[in-house]
Specification:
mainly alpha, rod-shaped, 141 residues
């Protein structure tokens, strides 16, 4: 059980922080499979040695005895990595915002300190251009 939680945490960390995210999922599953495979191979070698019964009992309690017991932590790593990758993809700050906020609609001051007109805010007419040129000439701009 402890091994499942550990592999789920490692899978979640890899799925969340590895870029691209699907590679993190694959690496988490492969890493868990390699660790479980090495444990199964080590247990098989230890079972052929004498006076290792107590150690084998302890290791079987940690890693399991059958193929289903060995597959549990690998599946926990896969599920943790997939969920973390999906939820991390939804909350990724590098994506462009989907909705337009009030900050995006706010007018920005230009280099001269005047507020620029936003597209579609006012209709461009000749009278506006004349008024701006008169103000600029009065102010000496």
């Amino acid at each position: 059980m402890v091994l499942m939680v550990a592999f789920a945490l490692v899978g979640a960390l890899l799925g969340l922080f590895w870029r691209p995210r699907f590679v993190g999922v694959v690496i988490a599953v492969v890493a868990a499979g390699v660790v479980q495979g090495l444990a199964a191979w080590s247990l098989q070698i230890l079972s052929q040695q004498v006076n290792r019964e107590h150690l084998l009992v302890q290791l079987h309690a940690i890693f399991g005895e059958s193929a289903i017991d060995f597959a549990g932590p690998v599946l926990a790593a896969a599920v943790g990595a997939v969920f973390a990758a999906l939820l991390g993809g939804l909350t990724d700050a590098r994506r462009p915002p989907v909705v337009v906020t009030a900050d995006g609609l706010r007018r920005k001051a230009g280099k001269d300190g005047r507020y620029a007109r936003m597209e579609g805010m006012v209709q461009d007419r000749a009278i506006h251009a004349k008024a701006e040129s008169r103000i600029d000439s009065i102010l000496g701009l």
